[in-house]
Amino acid sequence: NQPFRVNGLVLAILAASAALALVHNDVSTISALYSYDLPGDHESRLAIVAQLLSHLPEDWLAWYDSEALTFPLITKASTSGVCYFLGDLAAQAISGKTDVEELDLSRSARSAAAGFLGHGPIAHYWLGFLDTLSFDGAWWAFFVKIFLDQGPMSIVYNTIYSLLLGAFTFRPPVQVLNDVKDALVPGFIASVKFWPFVHIITFSTLIPPELELLWVDLMEIIWVCILSRVNNEELSRTHKQKRAEDSQ
Questions:
Q1: Residue-wise pLDDT tens digits, 154-169
Q2: 45-104 tens-digit pLDDT
């Protein structure tokens, strides 16, 4: 049917584009390997291809590390956009939309835009600021960072996400602000249950500063599942309850 074809085509194009972006250097190398008359037999070429593919994860991580250092803002904003898109797709699947034609790709696109505009740039500067709070290498420094991140900043992140989602759907500002207020407490509670455990690793010495947002955004895929549920399913339930109360 039509929704299946449209959604399937969009997802296929996005998946193919992402795969090409990840392996384009290796594809070019492999193409050159078989395009020219190079010394060596077929087996040796296969061995080179296998070696290239075996190093693909570390090569990609090295490439991303270089991009994050050279173009930090756009790299991290794009990472947030991709992860927010995947997170919302996962949230829809968990909520029961397991068929391709049932997926609301416009909702996922809005979530991606919120990640690109609202989370990535802010998180880039915020995590950079937290990295300056070393407290002379004190062991308890990461507790302070977790407290700051899960105190005021969790409210900032969740509020911006809700505001952007409302703005992207052209909803009246009063309704958007009411949604922000309704999502504030459940969003904060969900955040406190999830992020402190993630940030034990974020603010440790295991992850270089330029890769902190990559780690956070990978965890954002799970978090957006939670946040999308708060901003969609739970708010929808709240609206129904309010309408029922008003009708009585």
A1: 888 888 988 898 889 8
A2: 777 778 877 777 888 888 888 888 899 999 999 999 999 999 889 888 888 887 888 889
Q: Which of 104, 84, 99 is nearest to 217 (CA)?
A: 84
Spatial distance between the Cα atoms of 96 and 113, rounded to a whole number of angstroms: 23
- Report the distance separating Cα 160 and Cα 183, nearest Å: 11
Give the whole-angstrom CA distance, residue 188 versus residue 152: 10
Give tens-digit pLDDT for 39-51. 656 667 777 778 8
- The amino acid sitting at 223 is W
Dig out the tokens for 221 from the structure.
């895929």
Helix residue ranges, H only, the chain = 2-35, 42-54, 56-70, 72-94, 105-114, 120-131, 141-148, 154-168, 173-202, 212-228, 235-247
DSSP at 192: H
CA distances in angstroms from 124 to 76, 149, 185, 200, listed in the order given: 7, 13, 25, 18
Contact 203, 72 (CB under 8 A): no
Confirm if 100 and 8 have CB atoms less than 8 A apart: yes
Structure-block tokens of residue 184? 């504030």
Residue 137, SS3 per DSSP: helix
Is pLDDT at 114 greater than 90 in this prediction? yes
Distance between CA atoms of residues 64 and 131, nearest Å:
20
What CA–CA distance (Å, rounded) separates 98 from 7? 13
